[in-house]
Write a structure and sequence with these properties.
HIT family, subunit A, 5-stranded antiparallel beta sheet, 5 strands, alpha+beta
Length: 110
């Protein structure tokens, strides 16, 4: 855990947050500044700073992030209508919190 990392504190329940999903590897919660009717953050509990910092040892967690995103899309009812999943990478790519996290957004009206 990084000392001053907001997502480390959330994942380790130091900051109260309502989790939609939690297991031994990751947590899922709603973005506090949603960009769509459904905007979830899928966050590994273990601190990984950015996509640029992943190694081959992280392949399982990256795969799990995507697998859980699929489950969460179904749970939120956007699996059939469509959704986006994406990582922001580094400041120039829109990353604000430097703890890797996958965005799941969807739920727009047709």
């Amino acid at each position: 855990m990084e000392k001053d990392c907001l997502f480390c504190k959330i994942a380790n329940e130091e900051i109260p947050t309502e989790f939609i999903y939690k297991n031994d590897n990751l947590v899922v919660f709603r973005d506090i500044n949603p960009q769509a009717p459904v905007h979830l953050l899928i966050v590994p509990i273990r601190h990984i700073r950015s996509i640029n910092d992943i190694t081959q040892n992280d392949n399982d967690i990256i795969s799990e992030l995507i697998s859980v995103a699929k489950e969460m899309a179904k749970k939120e009812g956007v699996d059939k209508s469509g959704y986006k999943i994406f990582f922001n990478v580094e400041k120039g790519g829109g990353q604000v919190i430097f703890h890797i996290h996958l965005h799941l957004i969807g739920g727009w009206e047709k």
